[in-house]
Amino acid sequence: MNETIILIDNEDKVVKVNRTGTVFFNKPYVDIIKQPINDLFRSIGIHQEIQPLALVKHSGTYEEGEMFFPEKSMWCFVTVAPAWDDKTLLGTVCILTDITQLKKLEGQLRHAQKMEAIGTLAGGIAHDFNNILNIIMGYGSLVQDSLGEDHPSRAQLNEVLTAAERAANLTKRLLAFSRKQVADLKPLLINESVIGIKKMLSRIIGEDIELITDLSDNKMLIMADGGQIEQVLMNLTTNARDAMPKGGSLTIRTGLFEIDDRFVEANGYGEPGMYARISTTDTGVGMDEETQKKMFEPFFTTKEIGKGTGLGLSIAYGIIKQHKGFINISSEAGKGTTFNIYLPLLQEAHIEYRESEDASPLKGGIETILIAEDDAAVRDMSRIVLESFGYSVIIAEDGEDAIAKFTENRDK
Ligand code: ADP
Ligand code: MG
Question: Is the pLDDT of residue 358 over 60?
Fold first, then answer.
């Protein structure tokens, strides 16, 4: 049997032990027999006195509980039951079942539930916070437009708006984490994404690690959510940093890549076509096969408690998948790690990409706009902004109100 089973006499000395028990105590059978059970426990690091007989006598029936064996890093479920010979109490039977794996799963489940709760909480906060930011940015832009080009307060107001925008980016990240965010797909030049976030990445990896970028000359256009792609690069960079505690280098490379039938056959995934490839190569500790098998699983982490969440790669995986892309790795323990991300390329012929948005103020409209918004402050702000551009605005508090207002005003 897999359980350790010990028969103990009336003096708390061992009468018999099964083979699993000899392995458990790491002693030959003869060295276990007739030993006081407490001596045996002491020999494996348990110094607390246990009196099995007193235990069962006290309750008249069996006792059970969980016990940790620090020297073995093992959790056991322990049952102590009286051993009867007809009506004479001979002693006790003690059964130890290894529940270490179960305990680990229990911990993971608790962790998962906690993350789920944090996700819900973060999503809720981010949503409310976004509304507030909208109000700040909306009124701020109105004030900005009303100030002359060389008004002394303009620069200061600019700072306010930039800070608000940064806060808005932060809430986006919170929303991505709680997976409440839908990808906002736009044509995106891969190299620009990398260049845009390079400064942030070098702040993540610190001074002991060199950040090298090797960008392709090709203009690679993909359909992507820029914020989410940045999130992926940040997660990979954070991992690379953790893998290089003594320093090293991280190289981010971009290039064209063709996925052909051979690739699909060799890897068992992929759609043939042209892809943009982003690779991150670190010179860190690398990963053994076991870790590689599990790394994308949510909550899989090899880091100590409090350091790793095990979410970085699973979020990255989710994002890349949402972009119809692929992510794979080549790594060997001790030899560094390369992550490859493949994102389907857009046919440039079909798409017109504007380098920067035209920032000149919009011309006012004469149209009527119906707004349904449940947050009163956001509602007012939207109305004021639109009216300041000349639109007629009808506001509604919710869906039902919107339908009523529409019916009322349908001819307008
Ligand atoms: P976390 O970083 O919180 O542990 P991740 O999902 O980001 O969770 O990564 C999962 C695991 O994959 C890490 O704990 C680590 O063992 C391994 N890993 C990820 N990236 C690297 C890397 N660049 N080098 C070595 N190991 C890595
Ligand atoms: Mg990570």
Answer: no
Which tens digit of pLDDT belongs to each residue from 361-409? 666 678 899 999 988 888 998 899 888 888 999 999 999 999 999 999 9
Which amino acid, one-letter code, is at 322?
A: Q
Total residue length of the chain:
412
- Determine the Cα–Cα distance for residues 152 and 157; give it in Å rounded to an integer: 10
Nearest residue to 242 (alpha-carbon basis) of 281, 284, 213: 284
Radius of gyration of the chain (CA): 32
Token output for 62: 């069996």
Kindly give the distance from the C-alpha atom of residue 70 to the centroid of ligand 2, in angstroms, as a whole number.
29
Q: 74 C-alpha vs ligand 1 centroid, how far in Å?
A: 25
Enclosing H/E stretch for 186: strand 186-189
Q: Are 379 and 350 in contact (CB under 8 A)?
A: no
Nearest CA to ligand 1 atom 8: 310
Ligand 1 pocket: which of 201, 238, 299, 301 to mutate (most atoms within 8 A of CB)? 301
How far is Cα 217 from Cα 252, in angstroms, rounded to an integer?
14
User: Which of these, 120, 90, 106, 74, lies nearest to 13 by C-alpha position?
Assistant: 90
Is the pLDDT reported for residue 347 higher than 80?
no
Q: What is the pLDDT of residue 115?
A: 62
The ligand whose atoms approach the alpha carbon of 241 most closely is 1
d(CA 293, CA 43): 38
Q: Are 24 and 96 in contact (CB under 8 A)?
A: yes
**Which one of the ligands is nearest to 296 CA?**
1
Query: CA 319 to CA 315: how far, in whole Å?
Result: 6
Residue with tokens 């997660």: 235
C-alpha distances out from residue 7 to 33, 47, 63, 89, 337, Å: 10, 20, 15, 12, 53
For a substitution probing ligand 1, which of 201, 233, 239 has the most ligand atoms within 8 Å of its CB?
239
The closest-lying atom of ligand 1 relative to the alpha carbon of residue 310 is 8
Residue type, 17: V
Distance separating alpha carbons of residues 385 and 371, to the nearest angstrom: 12
Overall average pLDDT of the 278-302 stretch: 89
